[in-house]
Amino acid sequence: MKKFEDIIEKDDVLIIAELGVNYYDIAIQKDISPMEAAKLMIDEAKKNGADAVKFQSYKAEDLASKNAAAYWDLEKEPSTSQLELFKKFDKFGKEEYIEIFEYCKFKNIIFLSTPFDYKAVDYLNDLVPVFKISSSDITNIPFIRYISSKGKPIILSTGAATLNEIEEAVRAIRSIGDNQIYFMHCILDYPTKYKDINLNMIKTLRKLFPDNIIGFSDHTRPDEFMLVPVIAFAYGARIIEKHFTLDKTIVGNDHYHAMDQNDLKKLRENISFVKLISGQFEIEPLECEKISRQQARRSLVAAIDISKGEIITLDMLTFKRPGIGISPAMIDSVIGGIALVDIKEDDILTSEKIKFKE
Question: 3-state class of 281 per DSSP?
Fold first, then answer.
């Protein structure tokens, strides 16, 4: 199973399928229990290329007050109250997540869940290899410090944050310990319009935090080729997180901007293709260019017959393929040199046939 540290040495990517709470709707649609739906979604995520699945651990009353208004697309999710929406999706607790953790372990896929309260942090501590801090909590300094006290690596989402807020969150983490921090570029808008996704911010985060891995949390509607997260990878994101569903037509919550199985498979395949074509950084002739390097380049060639002992002049020379003789780059050393043998018109010049100018 891929681990988070794998992406450091191998310039690899870790894909997180964010199940969130979408399994509740899948359970209703398929007339199965939420646990069965969660496990089904884990199976599909694993089968189609995810390295990790992520849930959301919260209790509605601890997360939102009755006055918290909607911040999502009301045409897709009609709930106008955060409290009422979250109440529909907060049935899982410690025991359920332990069962899901064990199932993920059995299926060889990383289990993650974003905690939204102290109790969730405590019981998730034994289950997750890394803690995710939601963009919504980037200014919740007491909570960040508590998460940091567990000593685990931290994924910090930066949605809707100023640079000062990001730096303050980092200071809060560092004040507790030397936690490894992974930064996630994120736009806190559901769904995020393509014109608002601003993938160049990934490059900025890489410059600001050159010693840290940068990732991308995607809330756009999946395009045909999954170009948004694929380009994010090409820009340097090494963790890709996106909501996951088995049916993008389900009304409500996070289905309408989530990827499905086909999108996930396409994402994995296209990132693999980008890795394939990206190749090495060093500029040097490749093995596949060896024949072309010889046959497509030119050599110095006799434009006329040249007799042994003649001094070679410019009008005696031309440039023709293949490049198996003296390179045209050596012309200044050839002009003024002496023919060591009779050279026929169209003969390729080699070092055995001439004495270079001293």
Answer: coil
Note whether 13 and 233 are within 8 A (CB): yes
C-alpha angle 93/247/253, rounded to 5°?
A: 50
Going along the chain from its start, the domains and CATH numbers come out as 6-278 (3.20.20.70), 287-355 (3.90.1210.10)
3-state secondary structure 220-275: CCCCCCCHHHHHHHHCCCCEEEEEECCCCCCCCCCCCCCECHHHHHHHHHHHHHHH
pLDDT above 90: percentage of residues in the chain: 84
- Contact indicator for 318, 293 with CB cutoff of 8 Å: no
* 29-63: pLDDT as tens digits: 999 999 999 999 999 999 999 999 999 998 766 66
Contact 101, 265 (CB under 8 A): no
Give pTM, 2 decimals. 0.89
**How does DSSP classify residue 306?**
B
List % helix, strand, coil for the chain (3-state, nearest 5): 40, 20, 45
Phi, psi of 188 (to 5 degrees): -85, 70
Residue 134 DSSP class? P
- What was the pLDDT predicted at 58? 85
d(CA 19, CA 255) in angstroms, rounded, equals: 10
Residue reference for tokens 């993920």: 104
pLDDT on residue 70:
63
- 3-class DSSP assignment, residue 6: helix
Q: Which one-letter DSSP state was computed for residue 288?
A: G
Which pLDDT tens digit goes with each residue over 75-123?
Answer: 667 767 666 666 667 889 999 999 999 999 999 999 999 999 999 999 9
